[in-house]
Amino acid sequence: MKQEILDLRQKMQEVNVDAYVVSTADSHNSEYVGEHYRIRQWLTGFTGSNGTLVVTQKDAKLWTDGRYFIQCEKELSGSEITMMKMGEPDTPTVWEYVAEVAKNSEKTFRVGFDGRTIPKKQVEELFNKSKKAGLSEEKLPEIVIEQDLAGELWEATDKRPKRAMERIRLLDKSFTGADVAEKLTKVREAMEKEACNQFFLSKLDDIMWLFNIRGNDVKFNPMALSYAFVTKERSFLFVQPEAVSEALKGYAGAFDIVICEYDDVFKFLKEYPYEGKTLVDFSEISIMAYKAISEGCGEEQIINGKNPTLELKAVKNETEIQNMREYFVKDSAAMTKYIYWLKNGEHKKLTELEAMEKIDSLRSEVKGCMGLSFTTIAAYGANAAMMHYEATEESHAICDNKGMILTDCGGQYPGATTDVTRTVALGEVSKEEIADFTYVLKGFLALMNAKWLKGCTGRNLDILARQPLWKRGIDYKCGTGHGVGCYLNVHEGPQNIRWKYIGDMEEAVLVPGMTVTDEPGVYIEGQYGIRTENTLLVRAEEENEYGQFLSFENLTWVPIDMDLVDLSILNKEEIELLNTYHRACVDKLAPYLSEEELNWLKKL
Amino acid sequence: MKQEILDLRQKMQEVNVDAYVVSTADSHNSEYVGEHYRIRQWLTGFTGSNGTLVVTQKDAKLWTDGRYFIQCEKELSGSEITMMKMGEPDTPTVWEYVAEVAKNSEKTFRVGFDGRTIPKKQVEELFNKSKKAGLSEEKLPEIVIEQDLAGELWEATDKRPKRAMERIRLLDKSFTGADVAEKLTKVREAMEKEACNQFFLSKLDDIMWLFNIRGNDVKFNPMALSYAFVTKERSFLFVQPEAVSEALKGYAGAFDIVICEYDDVFKFLKEYPYEGKTLVDFSEISIMAYKAISEGCGEEQIINGKNPTLELKAVKNETEIQNMREYFVKDSAAMTKYIYWLKNGEHKKLTELEAMEKIDSLRSEVKGCMGLSFTTIAAYGANAAMMHYEATEESHAICDNKGMILTDCGGQYPGATTDVTRTVALGEVSKEEIADFTYVLKGFLALMNAKWLKGCTGRNLDILARQPLWKRGIDYKCGTGHGVGCYLNVHEGPQNIRWKYIGDMEEAVLVPGMTVTDEPGVYIEGQYGIRTENTLLVRAEEENEYGQFLSFENLTWVPIDMDLVDLSILNKEEIELLNTYHRACVDKLAPYLSEEELNWLKKL
To answer: Which of A206, A504, B66, B491 has CA atoms 20 to 30 A from the CA of A363?
Structure first.
């Protein structure tokens, strides 16, 4: 067993904790977190963005989702930590498992975790599952939330990265389309609907969106570590003092925003002179913040409601949409140049790392590019079967003049966050690879060209992308699509495209202005991986006696590698859709491409 | 205002009832009910199978669903009863409406209804909606359930039909595939899972299925009015004395079934010496029966659980499947002969009534036919835009040598209940009609040939049938499909194919052995209606690393009218599917068709 786990077990014994839970989250329940917060990764070696570790004296188990099964197994090998496949029929959830272990304990079972990183809702889940497992009210587990046992161990090694504290930047209205005052008005309307006078917000991208600010505390995500507290008259923004510029101070003054110290938030929440009810979202708020507020205003005054900024942020306004359209075209041009280079460039022995560097450098040259929106995946051959593979200096494949390379990447721009995947043939490919690619393409086109009645969620639409693959007896073990932020996180809710919802996954009605990716794929372990991904925007079509129809506007304009398409598998509508798409790519990308690149594109 | 409603208002005043609710159901929450129970129809004139009337001193409102909007409006015209469109965004539910009226009442609001006809769950719904409307615990409406005000009025006219009491028949194991003892064992296993010693069942088709009996108390549905009560050791069957034959007595003796009097059930439920918990399904059990049981065993001993017979009955066994396959072919032959007659027969002035009589008579000639499974719909031209139109002696269309006739019908056989719809051209048809028909066909074929991973419900699959129409900006305001019984009701749950679920609609995972119809359509008010419907059976495909794949086996083999198909709208896969389907029709129907009929079929 890894020394880190053994040390943790030692600590657990010292403070009498029977099970210790380490999630991936920071204090804001973020999907992607700063280096400082990667405790679970340090403990286990698993680098994926979704994983929860549960350590007892007997076991160490790590839950992750279908995107990471192959990668996680690899990274855990030799560690004696068991991977738990989230969402598989026989896998208990984290809390079901903890409840089951608690049930078999003779004394009161004590569950420990860093209370800043576990949301209130998950604690409720622990208690619910415990009751369901048959534990009586008196025998329910006790939670120990004040001690960051694993974090302390990491600190003690002197190797834990410092917490990031980068300067906060203001984002201009020409990008946001609405100033903080307008946004606060909408938030307060939502508060009023819930009859709440206060609203506490800990979700980083929502705070960035609400205050029209951006930070650099999380790699790839323009986030500043922060909390927000909104009352009927005022708004409080908790940020690290080092992050505050003179410009931010002036801006805060102009919009009557009170700047407070990040680390004072729990004290503030305990001591605030609350009036009436306070709105929080149990799926976001940490148990620590929840306890602080309940100390301040009493538990019965806390209203668990949907965080109102979630949907406000998800529905892009006209300014955002206009910017997104433009930046997506520029970003698509970089990706198209990259594909041209892959297919026509001179590279004796191409490596995944070179490919990665090429697309990253092409993207960095795009005017306005602020960086990448996530680590570029350039995965050759069997590596592409790992949905979130990352090539490194130490370990990367050398590409051959055959097979396929999958590249999934995106950029951050002041007016857009992009996300695109293309799979490209590097030479000879098998009939099976071509067939799989073409069936993925069928699903990709079917979803992109969907039209539906308002009221549908991703659950209704998902089968359009999956049906051609299901007919071949193939599935991809992840959702078909996720929401995309606007110069925010590359994964954004509440909307998504999935056929089943497990655990806490949200299912939201798709409304005009929402973005969503369309990314079906085929992943054959040990052989190859295929994914084709565009970002789409929900837009209104006609409204008639049947209701309001909706469809997608396509934002991504990157060609499909026709070397991988078997036209005999496509029907005439699909061929027409593909041709129309390629003609649009030519029109939109022409200003950004060289003559050779454009000529190549025109011939697709 | 109709005299019946005025009389009801008078009665309401006498017993101090502020709102009176009349649903469509009998005492078993049946979808289709015997003549004796059609109180709502008698009061309002609306003949549809789904409608709930709420009468106050000021208003009379009738809720119905999208299948009946056109018909209901017609039938209510001149009555001052307002139609309420269920499921439309702005329509409150029945109980939301009652709660809203209650809220505006100064005194305690009294809601009356026949307590045998309103399920416990709906009463809970009334209270929930009342709380949501802002009524405090003390101001919640009072329910008055002992008085069947409307029924008494009808009785007083001397025109109310007597309650049916037909002889009960036994169904042989060669049709049921499992005897009552085997079925009771499964029910008791389900009871044990819920730690219940008693189970009360009031759903007629479930009782028929469980005891392998059939009745004739409801037209088209082989039901006997009955209740069942199952304990760990015994089973009690409540039926009308007139329904009990010597054979049933012997059978009951052999399987240790206690035959009791139907009208004694409430007394029995009050007086039974309960041991431990009793399982009931709140969505089925009437509030009257619920009250009786709670008097008998105490409310805290009643467990609200899914009625276990529902899914047991829905998953057909091998014997049932084998019988269904055979009877569906025979039934399809009758329908095919009918279509041949429509298209090639000599009829100077065809009427809807003649068409109806023709298919009904052809079906009655099928060996084993026990009758129809519902009133045949033969709707010409604009009449077909009414999803559940019924031609009568008094009112029916004369068909012209142009346009389309829609025929939706089915039969009862000892081994199957069938349900099929075909729309047929009677001569010249418009381009629009052909296009709409072809897009319906595309959706019909897409769903029929679907393949999916186990875990999907009808919500996942529905868009396959609807997408081609949605792309044209057209919708049909009903589900795409419903479960079908096996010599039971033509509508059977819990499974169905829908894109949204309103009110109490159930959403169930599709599993092998379940049946479901595939019936997309286009309904253009005042112009025409199109529907194509087959009955499908869920079956297992391969199980692999992605999970268990499922698909449909087609049960209905009736040709599609190629005069209505624009081949240029179909893609090559669809044309191939259609050809394969027609070849299979030829193979399966050949033994039952005349030479002319077969030759015609072969040429399609």
So the answer is: A206
